[in-house]
Amino acid sequence: MKTILTLAVTAGSISFASGQIMMLAGAIPADKYGWTPQAGVRTAAQVCAHVVSANYFFATKLGAKIPDGVKMETLEADLKTKEAIAAELKRSFEVVIGAIKNTPDASLKNKVELPFPGEFTQMTVSLILVAHANEHLGQLIAYARSNAIVPPWNDKK
User: Fold this and answer.
1) Rounded mean pLDDT of 71-78?
2) What's the whole-number mean pLDDT along residues 34-55?
3) Calpha distance 8→103 (Å, rounded)
């Protein structure tokens, strides 16, 4: 029972962060998608595309399939417009949240291989997803604020 509750909380946390990421991505004007705080740092569009790519990558570690037509090798470069990014953000969060909700309790201890050092399980992956979504939500908030864009959920202009 504790594990099921943990997965529900994890899915809920990602769902909350995804809603804010998608609202913020919608609030950033298309002409600001190419903005970056400095050379060598991801643009707003690249941050969003990275979130999409990571969502799909981590979802596969939970047993999900990448949607037809998504080419992981070129995904981040393929997402060029605000509209394409918004659609793929939504779809990637649906895939990853579904993957978490459909992860059987018995498989949470299953080891998975990730491209960074350490030992990881499917449970670890679900927790990394929460941290990752929130990390990039914070990054997008900073990008928005740097461009005088108030997050849509903030009534303090």
Assistant:
1) 94
2) 97
3) 11
Cα Rg for the chain, rounded, in angstroms?
Answer: 16
Measured CA distances, 121 to 6, 103, 114, 127 (Å)? 14, 12, 10, 10
3-state per-residue secondary structure call for the chain: CHHHHHHHHHHHHHHHHHHHHHHHHHHCCHHHCCCCCCCCCCCHHHHHHHHHHHHHHHHHHCCCCCCCCCCCCCHHHHCCCHHHHHHHHHHHHHHHHHHHHCCCHHHCCCEECCCCCCCEEHHHHHHHHHHHHHHHHHHHHHHHHHCCCCCCCCCCC
**Average confidence (pLDDT) over 110-132:** 95
- pLDDT cut 90: percent of the chain above it: 86
- Is residue 112 a contact partner of residue 60, using CB atoms and an 8 Å limit? no
Instruction: Give the pair of three-digit tokens for residue 92.
Output: 């990637």
